[in-house]
Specification:
- The structure is a single chain.
- This protein has 58 residues and is mainly α.
- 72% of the residues lie in helices and 0% in strands.
- Helix 1 packs across helix 2.
């Protein structure tokens, strides 16, 4: 079980390693909270997809 969690964490780390960060300045059309909420949804979706793919292989 711990190996599966480590594999999932490693895959997520690789997925987000090269992502460009966003600079939210005063001209931004979204708030920092809106930005982080959307990123949380993306992360949850990616984690679910990776988890599904890992379970499918077993």
């Amino acid at each position: 079980m711990m190996s599966a969690v480590n594999d999932l964490d490693q895959k997520l780390t690789e997925l987000y390693f090269e992502k460009v960060t966003v600079n939210l300045d005063s001209k931004s059309t979204i708030t920092p909270n809106e930005f982080w909420s959307s990123m949380e949804l993306v992360a949850i979706n990616n984690k679910a997809v990776i988890n599904f793919q890992m379970k499918k292989r077993v």
